[in-house]
Amino acid sequence: MSALRELLASYRSASRTEREKDSYFELLFKDFLKNDPTYSPAILSSVYIQRLGRIRKH
Questions:
Q1: Could you list the pLDDT tens digit for every one of the 58 residues in the chain?
Q2: Distance CA 44, CA 29 (A)
Q3: Cα–Cα dist 45/34, whole Å
Q4: CA distance 56 to 50
Q5: Model pTM?
Q6: Distances from the Cα of 44 to the Cα of 11, 36, 47, angstroms
């Protein structure tokens, strides 16, 4: 099993709700974007701002 699959499996087993599982994945993806040289900080900020907007609407 790949390291990513193992990490995602650990998220699934540790999560008590679908929302908690989503939160784990969102943090993983945010860290990926922050550390991948392909993506600039401007793109990361845009994605994060859009996500905050959706949270505030719910």
A1: 699 899 999 999 999 999 999 888 888 888 887 787 776 666 666 666 666 555 544 4
A2: 10
A3: 10
A4: 10
A5: 0.59
A6: 23, 10, 5
What pLDDT is recorded for position 50? 64
Q: What is the DSSP letter of 15?
A: -
> What is the C-alpha separation between 38 and 19, in angstroms, rounded?
28
CA angle, 45 then 35 then 12, to 5°: 90
Structure token pair of residue 52: 């905050």
Spatial distance between the Cα atoms of 56 and 51, rounded to a whole number of angstroms: 9
Question: DSSP string spanning 32-58?
Answer: HHHH-TTS-HHHHHHHHHHHHHHHHH-
